[in-house]
Amino acid sequence: MPEGDTIHRAARRLRAALVDHPLREVYSPLPAIAGAALVGQAIVRVEARGKNLLMHFSDGRALYTHMKMTGAWHVYRERDRWRKPPRWAKVILHTDALMAVCFNAPVVQLLSAVGLKRHPVLARLGPDLLDPGFRFADVAPRLRPFAPVPIGEVLLHQQIACGIGNVYKSETLFLCEQDPFVCLEAIDRERVAQIYDRARTLMAQNMGGGMRDTRRREGGRYWVYGRAGELCRKCGTRVEMRRQGDSGRSTYFCRSCQGVPGAERTAPAGPIRSRP
Question: At what angle do helices 4-18 and 189-205 cross, to 10 degrees?
Answer without folding.
Answer: 40
